[in-house]
């Protein structure tokens, strides 16, 4: 038995924790290319030899970290027998050492384009994290004291994930924050209500960070993102042989993983009725029972849930259990939409300009009065999340150090109807004409394409060129 296989149960538990925190899939193989631990599709291959192992074999031999950013083009995959059918799109891996020899590899894998993009954007951080995990696993091979050190390293990552901040001074937002802070140290269930993008997850992080459970990971689950047939097994876990496809030794559920900590159930209005019944028992009896299991497992958790739906109406329609509703609605906190706290907009805009200045290396100083008036008049159906995305867009698009009305996206200007009070009709028409042409003229458009555009707009080629020159679009 290899060194890593001797501590397999320890490694698997932490691989699951890492995957839960970083929202990625993780695997570990030993120096015989046997999979010691894994999440996602590799959770079912523990104990099996990795057949498509060109990449891992190179790391075992060289003792150096490696990465694959495009499995179809990377030389590491050349000659691999599973190259054309491999589901891995990207991979970042780091060797695990013992006494100077490579005894295994820890790897983060992307199976979707979204995961691949995240891996590319955070490659340096991921590599550094794997380096620390490798060092701590090496220590674990010598002494159980490394378990505590590994938990501390996981906590460092968790601390980076749990950061929370609320910007603004509106009365409704201050009241929501006041209640959240007051109940943070309680174990009572909190029910966060509010439209999408109002900051429910940030509020959950704040409550957990101020609670006595803050030293352990808060486990977050988006109930709407899990396929209905998998919700129960994800939340409560399952035993070996519980259903077709159940992996050997079963699987721990999110409630067990959250033992001693906080579990955040986002979009709870999307939870299927059969699962609602089981959740009610968990809340009432503080025990969880895995699918296919017969033994109740005691758990100590604090539940925070959230929804953007009208739960009361769902109760009336029979789509949500009334008894569960009353069990969850112990401490309700309403987060106001941005359109009802517009006095906070200037502070929010300033905050996110500073945030993206640092993140994107920009030097934006603010917004013009006309642009601010337009942004303030807009209703922000996507709330703070939409506003954050708009500021990021403007930081990339705006030419000067001050965001002008002409920089704002068309849908905000047209739906706002503000910012034009001091403009003449000719100026308003010119601004709209520039926006239309900007959206229709491709960068580097050919003469033929411009001629076709003039024909489509039913103007002469000379008129089109005159307008393009006027708006600096040539």
Describe this structure in words.
- With 474 residues, this protein is of the alpha/beta class.
- The chain folds into 4 domains: 5-161, 2-Layer Sandwich (Beta-Lactamase), CATH 3.30.450; 178-334, P-loop containing nucleotide triphosphate hydrolases (Rossmann fold, 3-Layer(aba) Sandwich); 338-422, Helicase, Ruva Protein, domain 3, CATH 1.10.8; 425-474, no CATH class.
- Helices cover 44% and strands 13% of the residues.
- The chain is built from 19 helices and 14 strands.
- The protein has a 5-stranded antiparallel sheet, sandwiched between helices.
- Mean pLDDT is 84; it is low at 145-150.
- It comes from Anaerotignum faecicola.
Would you spell out the secondary-structure blueprint of this structure?
Elements: H1 8-22, E1 25-30, E2 35-38, H2 54-62, E3 66-68, E4 90-98, E5 101-110, H3 113-121, H4 123-140, H5 145-161, H6 171-183, E6 190-193, H7 200-209, E7 219-222, H8 231-236, H9 254-257, E8 262-266, H10 273-285, E9 287-288, E10 297-298, E11 302-307, H11 311-316, H12 322-328, E12 331-334, H13 345-360, E13 366-367, H14 369-377, H15 383-397, E14 402-403, H16 410-416, H17 425-440, H18 447-456, H19 461-470
Parallel strand pairs: 6-11, 6-12, 7-8, 8-11, 13-14
Antiparallel strand pairs: 1-2, 1-5, 3-4, 4-5, 9-10
Helix pairs in contact: 1-5, 4-5, 6-7, 13-15
């Amino acid at each position: 038995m290899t060194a890593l296989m001797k501590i397999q149960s320890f490694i698997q538990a932490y691989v699951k924790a890492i995957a839960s925190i970083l929202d990625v899939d993780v695997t570990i193989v030993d120096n015989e290319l046997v999979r010691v631990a894994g999440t996602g599709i590799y959770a079912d291959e523990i104990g099996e030899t990795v057949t498509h192992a060109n990449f891992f074999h190179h790391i075992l031999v060289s003792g150096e970290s490696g990465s694959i950013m495009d499995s179809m083009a990377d030389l590491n995959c050349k000659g691999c027998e599973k190259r054309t059918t491999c589901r891995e799109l990207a991979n970042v891996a780091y060797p695990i050492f013992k006494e100077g020899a490579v005894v295994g590899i820890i790897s983060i894998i992307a199976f979707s384009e979204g995961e691949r993009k995240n891996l590319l954007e955070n490659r340096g951080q991921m590599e550094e994290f794997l380096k620390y995990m490798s060092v701590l696993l090496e220590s674990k091979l010598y002494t159980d004291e490394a378990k505590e050190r590994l938990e501390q390293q996981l906590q460092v990552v968790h601390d980076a994930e749990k950061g929370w901040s609320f910007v603004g001074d509106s009365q409704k937002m201050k009241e929501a924050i006041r209640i959240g802070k007051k109940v943070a140290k309680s174990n009572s269930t909190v029910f966060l209500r509010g439209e999408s993008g109002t900051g429910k997850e940030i509020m959950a992080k704040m409550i957990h960070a101020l609670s006595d459970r803050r030293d352990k990971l808060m486990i977050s689950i988006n109930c709407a993102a899990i396929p209905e047939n998998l919700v129960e097994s994800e939340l409560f876990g399952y035993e070996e042989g519980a259903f077709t496809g159940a992996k050997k030794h079963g699987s721990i559920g999110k409630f067990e993983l959250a033992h001693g900590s906080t579990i955040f159930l986002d979009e709870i209005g999307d939870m299927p009725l059969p699962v609602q019944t089981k959740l009610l028992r968990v809340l009432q009896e503080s025990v969880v029972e895995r699918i296919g299991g017969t033994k109740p497992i005691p758990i100590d958790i604090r539940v925070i849930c959230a929804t953007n739906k009208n739960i009361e109406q769902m109760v009336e329609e029979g789509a949500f259990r009334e008894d569960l509703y009353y069990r969850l609605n112990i401490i309700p906190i309403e987060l106001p939409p941005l359109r009802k706290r517009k006095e906070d907009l200037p502070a929010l805009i300033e905050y996110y300009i500073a945030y993206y200045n640092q993140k994107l290396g920009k030097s934006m100083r603010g917004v013009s009065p006309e642009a601010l008036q337009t942004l303030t008049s807009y209703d922000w159906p996507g709330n703070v999340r939409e506003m954050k995305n708009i500021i990021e867009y403007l930081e990339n698009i705006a030419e000067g150090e001050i965001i002008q009305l002409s920089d704002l996206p068309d849908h905000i200007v047209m739906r706002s109807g503000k910012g034009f009070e001091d403009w003449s009709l000719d100026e308003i028409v010119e601004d709209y004409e520039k926006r239309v042409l900007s959206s229709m003229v491709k960068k580097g458009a050919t003469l033929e394409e411009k001629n076709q555009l003039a024909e489509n707009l039913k103007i002469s080629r000379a008129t089109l060129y005159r307008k393009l020159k006027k708006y600096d679009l040539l």
